[in-house]
From TrEMBL:
Matches recorded under InterPro entries: ExoRNase_PH_dom1, ExoRNase_PH_dom2, ExoRNase_PH_dom2_sf, PNPase/RNase_PH_dom_sf, Ribosomal_Su5_D2-typ_SF, RNase_PH, RNase_PH_bac-type
PANTHER family: EXOSOME COMPLEX COMPONENT, EXOSOME COMPLEX COMPONENT RRP41
Domain Exoribonuclease phosphorolytic: 18-145, 164-227
GO BP, sorted A to Z: rRNA catabolic process; rRNA processing; tRNA processing
Presence of keyword RNA-binding: yes
Name this protein carries in UniProt: Ribonuclease PH
UniProt organism field: Deinococcus ruber
Organism taxonomic ancestry: Bacteria, Thermotogati, Deinococcota, Deinococci, Deinococcales
Length: 242
């Protein structure tokens, strides 16, 4: 994957702790039960929700359904064409899918979907850093679209979302803590975290660490605090658009 040109202009006028503009549109797929397209700067994600009338063996007989997530990058989502992800053993993809699944299961009360499996597909249309955190928010928006449709149709009688989800990347580039890294910044970061929070500011997951050289615990906490604040700000923007 090629580094994007002109790293010095990467922030494009943003302050160090300012995220890129977030734009989301719901109901973009005619066929999916729920869908959303989300753009975070130049990173763009299409998320769809499908419902299957079955559950995996470990959920059978329980009073709740199941949720799983799939993640993929399209060949020209990057500057140079990448091969289609036909290898089911792709480690990075599986790591991101597990992250997404855990986050969405925190957000949704699956007792409203007994004997059903929700599959959230997050496809990267264009990548410029932060694809996994953008996928969290796109997938949440698609879930919101699904639930809104089903409540209005009378399929669901109660609102099943327990908490909205916000997410952001934060990193140490040089000596600066920067929020919402684009690709050129992420490639130079000494440390970076992906932070996912709920609507009341609680942490769902923190993923990441140092690159090449360990950092002090105090600096890690500073990164985490910046991430929690930034994820909350992006979530507020997302909520306004839903």
């Amino acid at each position: 994957m090629s580094v994007l040109p002109n790293p010095s202009a990467a922030r494009q006028g943003r302050a160090l702790l300012e995220a890129r503009p977030l734009v989301v549109e719901r109901g973009v797929s005619r066929h999916a039960e729920g869908s959303a397209r989300l753009r975070l700067g130049h990173t763009e994600i299409l998320a769809t929700v499908s419902i299957e009338a079955k559950v995996p063996p470990h959920v059978r007989g329980k009073r709740e359904g199941w949720l799983m997530a799939e993640y993929s990058m399209l060949p020209r989502s990057t500057q140079d064409r990448m091969n289609r992800e036909r290898n089911l053993q792709n480690g990075r993809r599986h790591e991101i899918q597990r992250l997404l699944g855990r986050a969405f299961r925190v957000a949704l009360d699956l007792s409203h979907f007994r004997n059903q499996t929700l599959i959230i597909d997050c496809d990267v249309l264009e990548a410029d850093g932060g694809t996994r955190v953008a996928s969290v928010m796109a997938g949440y928006a698609a879930l919101h679209d699904l639930c809104d449709r089903q409540v209005k149709a009378g399929t669901l009688t109660d609102w099943p979302i327990r908490s909205p989800l916000g997410a952001v990347s934060v990193g140490l580039v040089g000596n600066d803590i920067r929020l919402d890294l684009d690709y050129s910044e992420d490639a130079r970061a000494r440390a970076d975290l992906n932070v996912i929070v709920t609507g009341d500011g609680k942490v769902v997951e923190v993923q990441g660490g140092a690159e090449g050289e360990a950092i002090a615990p105090e600096l890690y906490i500073e990164l985490l605090r910046a991430g929690v604040g930034g994820a909350g700000t992006l979530l507020a923007s997302l909520q306004r658009q839903l």
